[in-house]
């Protein structure tokens, strides 16, 4: 799977571990930065990853900052993105099954590499269930389209 990944300075170390793990598992990883722990602005990386996913340049996106909150908010500003903030494995599975999330945001302050790797594996391997959830996802996308009409 082709995965876009990005982080700010607070998520840099965890992003690097995730990038290496994903590549070792055979995924094509497109790294949108940052490339160091020097202070940066998380919206810059959320935007790059979200646009890559929304434009079909990557199948899924993974974002890491201190809490994951800023990244998820910023990514969700891009049309077509359904970014979910991860706190536990069950939630990650449900974001895929019920919401067809296409970007996963995580907080490096709250997760170690092992937990983050587990969350990413669940995120990549869990299918969208469709059915009644399809109707709800379509309603979310309709809300997004309302904003574009204004």
- The order of strands across the largest sheet is 2-1-3-5-4
Query: Which percent range fits the helix content?
Result: 40-55%
Shape: globular
Order of helices and strands: EHEHEHEHEHH
Total helices: the number is 6
How far apart are the first and last residues' alpha carbons, in Å? 36 Å
Largest beta-sheet characterization: 5 strands, parallel
Mean pLDDT: 95
* Fraction in beta strands: 15-25%
Structural class: alpha/beta
Rounded to an integer in angstroms, the radius of gyration calculated over CA atoms is: 14 Å
Low-confidence runs of at least 5 consecutive residues: none
CATH topology type: Ribose 5-phosphate Isomerase B, Chain: A
Number of strands: 5
CATH architecture: 3-Layer(aba) Sandwich
The CATH class: Alpha Beta
Q: Provide the domain count.
A: 1
What is the gist of this entry?
The protein is of the alpha/beta class and 150 residues long.
Helix-strand layout with pairing:
Layout: E1 2-7, H1 12-24, E2 28-31, H2 42-54, E3 60-65, H3 69-75, E4 83-85, H4 89-99, E5 103-107, H5 113-125, H6 132-149
Parallel strand pairs: 1-2, 1-3, 3-5, 4-5
What does this structure look like?
It is a single chain. By secondary structure, this protein is an alpha/beta fold. It has one domain (2-149): Ribose 5-phosphate Isomerase B, Chain: A. It is built from six helices and five strands, in the order βαβαβαβαβαα. It has helices spanning 12-24, 42-54, 69-75, 89-99, 113-125, 132-149, and strands at 2-7, 28-31, 60-65, 83-85, 103-107. Strands 2-1-3-5-4 form a five-stranded parallel beta sheet, sandwiched between helices. Strand 1, helix 1 and strand 2 form a beta-alpha-beta unit. The chain is globular, with a radius of gyration of 14 Å. The mean pLDDT is 95.
